[in-house]
Amino acid sequence: MQVFEAAHTVLFPIRQRDAHTTRTMRRWGSTVSALAAASLYAVLRRDHRAVDLAAVAVATEQASSAVSHACAMLRHATPHLLPRPLPNDPELYLDAELTFLATKVPSSAWVSVLRAPKGIFPLDAKRVRELATKLLSVCKTYEIPYSLEAPSFAYAILMHAIEGAYRRAMPVRALAKWAPDAAAYAYEDTRCVLVAPIHASVSTVLSRYAEMEKMLAALVQAVPWANERPVSKRERDRSRHSTRAGAVRHVARSDVVVYMSDALELATKGRSRHAPCSGHTHSGAKASPV
Predict the structure, then answer these.
(1) Is 103 found in the same domain as 209?
(2) pLDDT per residue over 227-280, tens digit each?
(3) Region Disordered: what ranges (predicted)?
């Protein structure tokens, strides 16, 4: 209720100022209903309830598009009360998709298909989830379309988090092939209240994984002790043929998985120090519009 009242207090004078007709004010009445639904959704997500926007829209008899628009209004009206409510939040699917990977994928598949050591199974779900949470938080400051096909984005995050947790690069396509099944499992998960259809395509997962790979490589370059890592033969050969003086060291996938945890920790601390600056980004990346 506090969220709704704050949003109404901020937004109503603006609507009233621009209201030249009865029709405009009537539309504001519809907006208030959608705003109330968006406030409910925002509070549920703040409390980490696994419920999607479509479920709230159905329960409150509002159009999903109207509630989604109202979420954008909330972000501007009540930033001091709530984190930004995301209409399509990848975090909704992280736990269920991780549960699928940890419990439904047999250990033989991890060892043979992913060429992973036997010690990787069962997955350290707690460690993977911690890294996934930090990675998602950092992704929200970059121009990565995390709200498009959110289940696919969530799965790509888990792929990186698994590699980071074990500091081991894995065959990406082999790991991505379970994405559709993981999304289907999330939809059937009784811990979640999901109404909107859930799909995760392998191609989208691979695209999002690649986008995050570039972001993580940039973050690793900003880790001071990562620059002191031993120079591999491949990197030495590459630098020998480079004509640029003082060129930035190339960050390979093997480097990303080793220094991912450190890079995310530094990026998270950097964001907290610059929290009052709404447009702050890292490494020159553009802020991500939601």
Answers:
(1) yes
(2) 877 666 665 556 655 545 555 678 889 999 999 999 999 998 876 555 433 333
(3) 270-290
Q: How far apart are CA 221 and CA 262, in angstroms?
A: 11
Query: Which of 154, 171, 153 is closest to 257 using CA atoms?
Result: 171
Q: Which helix (H) or strand (E) holds 286?
A: none
Q: Is residue 239 part of a domain?
A: no
Position 258 scores a pLDDT of: 94
**Integer CA distances (angstroms), 27 to 21, 152, 273, in order:** 10, 36, 40
Q: Per-residue pLDDT tens for 100-119?
A: 999 999 888 887 777 766 66
State how far the Cα of 257 lies from the Cα of 255, in Å rounded to an integer. 6
Residue 55 domain-assigned (yes or no): yes
Element (H, E) at 119: none
Phi-psi region of 93 (alpha: psi -120 to 50; beta: other; left: phi over 0): alpha
pTM for this entry: 0.76
Distances (CA, A) of 88 to 2, 113, 149: 23, 32, 8
CATH number at residue 50: 1.10.472
Residue in the block written with tokens 């911690």: 130
Pair of tokens at residue 65:
């598009």
> Which residues are CB-contacts of 218 (< 8 A; sequence separation ≥ 6)?
251, 282, 283, 285
Range of the domain at 71: 1-77
The one-character DSSP state at 226 is G
Same domain, 66 and 103: no
> How far is it, in rounded angstroms, from Cα 78 to Cα 212?
29
Query: Could you tell me if 66 and 120 lie in one domain?
Result: no
